[in-house]
Amino acid sequence: MPRPTGQRFLIARNPDPDSRLPYLLRLPIDGGLVLKARDTWPRTARVFCARADGWPPDAEVIDDVPMLLCRRRGPAIDIELDRPRENRSQIVFTTMRGGREGIFWQTRKVVGTARPGARIPGRRASGLAALEIVVDTRERYPFRFASQQATTIRAALSAGDYAVRRADGSIIAAVERKSIADLASGLNNGTLVFELAKLGELSRAAIVVEERYSSLIKHAYAPAGFLPDMLARLQVRYPEVQIVFAETRPLAEEWTFRYLGAAVAEEIQSNLGIE
After folding, report:
1. Using CB atoms within 10 A of its CB, is residue 207 exposed (0-12), middle (13-18) or buried (19+)?
2. CA nearest 179: which of 224, 225, 134, 212?
3. Residue 180 and residue 196: Cα distance in Å, rounded?
4. 76-99 b/e (C-beta count within 10 Å ≥ 16 → b)
């Protein structure tokens, strides 16, 4: 069970009488992030927020709660407070129509009932106008991403079959493609562990399998339960590498496109300082 971090979540009244956001939130992150907010908790809908100039020295604090967690996860900040109710929430940074920043405070309860006016991508990966995917030169029958809005180039990759790169050539994220036969072979002969070790050196990496998990369980050339057990042990050993069963080759291609696009979008947001 998480223990108090010594940090505190503060809510105060906004001293600006003309503001439509009557409250201030102070988060112990980024040197003390201060936001203006429409409400003191997202009880029935997402709460709209905006960046504040700072925390007033004579702030009228109306809530002061110890925190168990305050952590950035991409464009969101996860919050867990040390109290029995109204203790878990998230603050999400997004882009509104017209390019302006939108900040929304939400809980799991309300997230399905309200949607901010954010730009929702259609077929583009994470709303990116362009996505260039590097295909490893050793990939014999590669994904072409013909149904997705992406271009491909061939280059040698140190890990994975597909990747997206920074301007300096370093890898943002990589995906290794496996048929069920490839996966079973790698588990049987032990080579998969070395692939996972290489992928684990990257900041973001995954393996996508062009089959259902049930096909591994029913594999004819291994004792019952052996391959799933080996796979589970490797997943525990290398938790930083996702292993996804995508049922079919087209679904595996689509998942790879979305994953790599999301990794690029995350990198862009991080470089803009909204992580």
Report:
1. buried
2. 212
3. 16
4. bbebbbbeeeebebbbbbbbeeee
Q: What is the pLDDT of residues 180-222, one digit of tens each?
A: 999 999 998 889 999 999 999 999 999 999 999 988 888 756 6
Instruction: Find out whether 101 and 118 touch, Cβ atoms under 8 Å.
Output: no
pLDDT tens-digit map of 13-45: 999 989 999 999 999 988 889 999 999 999 888
Instruction: Band the pLDDT of 81: cuts 50, 70, 90.
Output: very high
Instruction: List, in sequence order, every beta strand (DSSP E) within the chain.
Output: 8-13, 23-27, 33-37, 47-51, 61-73, 76-81, 88-95, 101-106, 132-136, 151-155, 162-165, 171-178, 205-209, 241-245
pLDDT score at 275: 47
- Could you tell me the CA-to-CA distances from 187 to 194, 222, 252, 272 in Å, in that order? 11, 10, 20, 41
Rounded CA-CA distance 60/66 in Å is 18
Whether 209 and 178 have beta carbons less than 8 Å apart is answered as yes
Cα 186 to Cα 32, 87, 111, 131: the distances in Å are 48, 44, 40, 30
> Could you count the other beta carbons within 10 Å of the beta carbon of residue 174?
30
In the three-class reduction of DSSP (H, G, I as helix; E, B as strand; rest coil), residue 188 is classed as helix
Do 133 and 151 meet the contact criterion of CB atoms below 8 Å apart?
yes
Q: What is the pTM of this model?
A: 0.60
pLDDT of 176-186, one tens digit each?
999 999 999 99
